[in-house]
Amino acid sequence: MILVIGGSYQGKTEYALKTFEEVRFFNQAHLFIKKRLSEGRNQDDIYAELKAITSDGQWVIIADEIGNGVVPMDEADRTYREVAGRILIELAKEADEVHRVILGIGQRIK
Amino acid sequence: MITLVYGGSGSGKSAFAEDLVCKTDYPNRYYLATMQSFDEESDKRIKRHRSLRDGKGFITIECPVDIANAIIDKDSIVLLECMSNLVANEMFREESPKTFTECADKILDDVKALSKKADSLVIVTNNIFEDGLSFNESTKEYMRALGLINETLAKISNEVYEVVVGIGIKL
Description:
The complex is a heterodimer.
Chain A: E1 2-6, H1 12-19, E2 24-26, H2 29-38, H3 43-53, E3 59-64, H4 75-94, E4 97-102, E5 105-108
Chain B: E1 2-7, H1 13-22, E2 28-33, H2 40-53, E3 58-62, E4 76-81, H3 83-91, H4 100-117, E5 120-126, H5 137-156, E6 159-164, E7 167-170
Parallel strand pairs in B: 1-5, 1-6, 2-3, 2-4, 4-5
Antiparallel strand pairs in B: 6-7
């Protein structure tokens, strides 16, 4: 599995599409995490589901980095930030490659 | 020797910083904890961090303000966790908060004094600057202070890392 991360509107999808061939894409993984949290699911559960979905064949998971801001006032927003961060760390550990995209420029960081 | 570790919330910066410390063989490992507990959520955060440190041989010193006063033996490495809490504690400790430059000067002086006591100092600090939202004046003052401190620490540090999804990138 390959992980592509970066802030929003940084050209992650375009970068992934032109860089990786013969793969399947799981885009906007952060929003998937947010939706599952709103359904009352926990971190381990969501991570297991993501892993199961992407277990077959070569996948590229694309996600926003959302932790680089002021601590949100709303508790659900804080939980989302924390859980999304923790899940991305676990995915990065598992990944064969991690790429970070800033200004459309991708850097392989693993 | 000062090492600066920078990253967002949930970036894995603490675990990365602890690994850096654990790769060294200083006889004494100190953990200066700046976070104060005032509710269940901060209790949970503190407990999570404590369990991460378990078995790594850290001596924990609770130090919400005035880090220059921490008592550190020689032959030591100190992990200061984290700057964002320290700035909040220092800035809002009195009824009339300090200006951001006063606050930054005070903390930077304390860091310099602390780094003289320890052989090696690892500082964890936070990236809170990239959500593009606007905030009230007191939050902005806090952001200015933390921004100025981060920038100055990066200048006086021997090594600076940004942590992204648990991966340390040397800057």
